[in-house]
């Protein structure tokens, strides 16, 4: 069901534990195998699962771009009640069960902002997200203090990532003031907190971090908290939708 865009694996296990999921009218047990999806030449056929007695039908695939505001968590819900991207999706035209489980592709930490991709078929984007694919990500970053002259040439030549153990990190200047500086950073590894760790290694504090592009997708003029429909552009990430249908 995860591959069919209906829910995450964790959510399906919760449905089973709560006795909400059935197959062909019988409750699903977590320790018993269920039939694999059938396939025809045109599509995959989901077995007749029901949730709370309502037949589950695979949703139409979608790809969305969200401008994540600073302070919002990249998760669908939070037990602590903090603001999450699931709240933003719930206020959008893509809310409701008819769109399945809309999940983020990759992450941005709570203090960061900018472009996050969302889809109800995240498994199809595994190659796009794989560090081996070298998918480029671009950021605007405000740091303090401004770059020291001893670091500027090394950073602008793309050699700043070597000493702290990262791959090539491209840095370009934007504007600077007495106490801080805005720079553009581009990388392809996408390791956890890579930009913050890389800059901290040289003694710089990140004030603002905004992702402006992810592979072929750009933030552009999308306002904070807004979501745009990128469906139809999935092939730019090397993805082709798999057609799913519910059992008759």
Written account of the structure:
Strands 7, 8, 9, 10, 11, 12, 13, 14 and 15 form a nine-stranded mixed sheet that branches. Strands 2-1-5-6 form a four-stranded antiparallel sheet. Strands 3-4-16 form a three-stranded mixed sheet, with no helix packed on it. It has helices spanning 9-17, 85-90, 126-129, 149-156, 194-201; strands at 21-23, 26-27, 38-39, 44-46, 49-51, 54-55, 63-68, 103-105, 113-119, 137-144, 170-176, 181-187, 205-214, 217-218, 227-229, 244-246. With 248 residues, the protein is of the alpha+beta class. Helices cover 14% and strands 29% of the residues. Among the domains are: 9-59, Structural Genomics Hypothetical 15.5 Kd Protein In mrcA-pckA Intergenic Region, Chain A (Roll); 136-214, 2-Layer Sandwich (Alpha-Beta Plaits). β8 and β9 form a beta hairpin. The chain is built from five helices and 16 strands. It is elongated and about 70 Å long.
């Amino acid at each position: 069901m995860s591959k069919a865009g209906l829910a995450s694996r964790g959510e399906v296990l919760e449905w089973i534990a709560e006795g909400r999921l059935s197959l062909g009218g019988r409750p699903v047990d977590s320790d018993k195998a269920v039939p694999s999806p059938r396939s025809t030449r045109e599509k995959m056929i989901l077995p007749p699962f029901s949730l709370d007695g309502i037949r589950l039908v695979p949703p139409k695939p979608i790809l969305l771009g969200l401008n994540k505001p600073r302070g919002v968590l990249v998760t669908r819900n939070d037990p602590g009640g903090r603001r999450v991207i699931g709240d933003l999706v719930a206020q959008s035209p893509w809310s409701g069960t008819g769109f399945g489980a809309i999940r983020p592709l990759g992450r941005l930490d709570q203090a960061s902002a900018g472009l996050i991709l969302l889809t109800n078929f995240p498994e199809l984007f595994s190659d796009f997200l794989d560090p081996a694919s070298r998918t480029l990500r671009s950021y605007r970053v405000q740091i303090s203090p401004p770059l020291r002259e001893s670091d500027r040439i090394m950073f602008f030549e793309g050699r700043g990532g070597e000493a702290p153990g990262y791959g090539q990190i491209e840095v370009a200047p934007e504007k600077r003031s007495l106490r801080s500086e805005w720079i553009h950073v581009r990388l392809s590894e996408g390791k956890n907190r890579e930009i913050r760790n890389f800059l901290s290694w040289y003694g710089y504090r990140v004030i603002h971090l905004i992702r402006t592009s992810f592979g072929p997708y750009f933030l552009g003029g999308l306002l904070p908290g807004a979501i745009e429909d990128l469906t139809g552009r999935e092939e730019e990430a090397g993805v082709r939708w798999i057609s799913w249908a519910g059992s008759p």
